[in-house]
From TrEMBL:
UniProt keywords, alphabetically: Flavoprotein, FMN, Prenyltransferase, Transferase
Flavoprotein domain segment(s): 6-174
Species, as recorded: Afipia felis
HAMAP family xrefs: ubiX_pad
Name of this protein: Flavin prenyltransferase UbiX
Organismal lineage: Bacteria, Pseudomonadati, Pseudomonadota, Alphaproteobacteria, Hyphomicrobiales
EC code(s) of this entry: 2.5.1.129
Length: 219
């Protein structure tokens, strides 16, 4: 393990595969992770995947119970790169925005903010009401990065895994971690999109896959 550790929070919003995939990628990169999952996050994992909770926990270097408010990541004296909440529910986001933390996940995020470290929230909800938007604005003003997992289509993804990995790669970019997952846009190879009928620069022109992806089959 090299460098400072990175905290990964998995809340109860849909999209737990983002948190799981982050743990896999960071493990392969040799980056130490501290994982905290909310109870709702564990329930969502059971609904959206065939993964066992124990197997997901095994991906992290350290695992902390949501109720363990005395864990290392609850203190600013424990140095980290920051934290990614993937996915981030509106409930967790609201707690972080107001500082009223009910468990270790939101406490750890609060600590990252107060220590002026990087906090990335992969918020998962649509549509958004004014309260959601105000919380996002407040968090952005406090230094957090709101990073909804919006898929990129310019790389012409062939699988759901391609879309997930590109998003994960972009989030890790925010920590200056290049996981080699991002199909980066090379605008200099398409200087005049008007003359390029596809307007996709150097991206693959393979057709998009048809059919509905099955999240439960992701490994």
């Amino acid at each position: 393990m090299t460098g400072l550790p990175l905290i990964i929070g998995i809340s109860g919003a849909s999209g737990v595969i983002y948190g799981i995939r982050l743990l896999e990628v960071l493990r392969d990169l040799g980056i130490e992770t501290h994982l905290v999952m909310s109870r709702s996050g564990e329930v969502t994992i059971a609904h959206e995947t065939d993964r066992k909770i124990a197997d997901i926990k095994a991906l992290a270097a350290h695992v902390h119970a949501q109720s363990d408010i005395g864990a290392a990541i609850s203190s600013g004296s424990f140095k980290t790169r920051g934290m990614i909440v993937a996915p981030c529910s509106m409930k967790s986001m609201a707690e972080i925005a107001t500082g009223t933390t009910s468990g270790l996940l939101t406490r750890a995020a609060d600590v990252v903010l107060k220590e002026r470290r990087r906090l990335v929230l992969m918020t998962r909800e649509t549509p958004l009401h004014t309260g959601h938007l105000r919380s996002m604005t407040q968090l952005s003003e406090m230094g957090a990065i709101i990073a909804p997992p919006v898929p990129a289509f310019y790389p012409r993804p062939q699988t759901l895994s391609n879309m997930i990995d590109h998003t994960i790669g972009r989030v890790l970019d925010l920590f200056d971690i290049d996981a080699k997952l991002v199909h980066r846009w090379k605008a200099e190879e398409s200087s005049d999109p008007a003359q390029d009928e596809s307007a996709t620069g150097s991206m693959s022109k393979a057709p998009l896959p048809r059919g509905r992806p099955d999240l439960r089959r992701l490994s």
